[in-house]
Amino acid sequence: MTTWHKALVLALAVLTAVALASCGEGDEQPTEVVLVTHDSFAVSDGVKRAFEEESGYTLRILKAGDAGEIVTRALLAAGNPEGDVLFGVDNNLLQRALDGDIFEEYESPELAAVDPALVLDPEHRATPIDRGDVCLNVDRGWFAARGVQAPTRLTDLTQPRYEDLLVVQNPATSTPGLAFLLATVAEFGDGWKEYWRALRANGVLVTDGWEDAYYARFSGSSGGNGNRPIVVSYASSPPAEVIFRDPRPVEAPTGVVESSCFRQVELAGVLRGAENQDGARALVDFMLSSRFQEDVPLQMFVFPARADTELPPEFERFAVVPESPLELPPEEIEANREQWVDEWTDIVVR
């Protein structure tokens, strides 16, 4: 064999090796699943490990702001997402996400165990994971000490006896604030603007977010020093007040105005263009499994979507489950949300 032939054979061998190596790299299977979610997401270490052991994937959690922020980021990255699964889009933002085509269709076999009323997308691009209700919370001790009846309806808040007692969140910057605005639209229809004018005249206080409203302004929060005994919070806030107080009270120190509650459903979806499609589907399945669903209440203080999930005793005893929560169709919310928020801003804070 001549020197030229040897060189040719060697060159062909190198090219073949490079080609085979490239094929091998392309055939490598993902070992990680990336969950894009909001800052309030929480899962216990044991449940996270259970998913990793069962699936063989490492779970990386990417927290990216509040619900509005994660949806906006997903829309900007549609088709080339930051992760594989997005969790935390709620019914108030669902239609925006669906219109932006950020999800792949996927119907989990675990969906059969979910309350059908929570399945908001018949094409199964977004899967319900948990539910909660944004409601007025009241400081029971404050009202009892003064011999004043706590409000029981939204219309009560416009009465002189409740002047300067209510704190709410700005719907332009807060998820519960938006939910409470939507509750007033659902309750009063076209009369919602007059209702907010009456609330403003009665001294409603507005904060940018839930933490400031609940911990700094509300008189009933544990460790708080606020002076307002009515706040927009959650139906599951009373069990949290019991769990985190030391010593634990026998009764919840806060109550819920059930007629004010607006239903909130949080959903997850496989992101279109995700690098690990199989892992993404496995994660959605796991988030609907009994193991994950039983972890939800005491991690995120919301209710699991799976109907057969056993609730912790604190939820059974102290949480409120409204029989007829206020609701609006996602498509109606999407069509009107920006206008409603702008009108609310003109009425309440300008």
CATH architecture of the largest domain: 3-Layer(aba) Sandwich
Structural class: alpha/beta
Distance between the termini: 89 Å
* Poorly predicted runs: 2-25
* Beta-strand share of residues: 15-25%
Specify the overall morphology: globular
Name of the CATH first level of the largest domain: Alpha Beta
Brief synopsis:
It contains 13 helices and nine strands.
Describe this structure in words.
The chain is an alpha/beta fold and 350 residues long. The protein has two domains: 32-132 and 264-318, Periplasmic binding protein-like II (D-Maltodextrin-Binding Protein, domain 2, 3-Layer(aba) Sandwich), CATH 3.40.190; 133-263 and 322-348, 3-Layer(aba) Sandwich (D-Maltodextrin-Binding Protein, domain 2). It is built from 13 helices and nine strands. Strands 1, 2, 3, 4, 5, 6, 7, 8 and 9 form a nine-stranded mixed β-sheet that branches. Strand 1, helix 2 and strand 2 (58-63) form a beta-alpha-beta unit. The longest helix is centred in the N-terminal third of the chain and has 25 residues, at 3-27. The termini are far apart. Mean pLDDT is 91; it is low at 2-25.
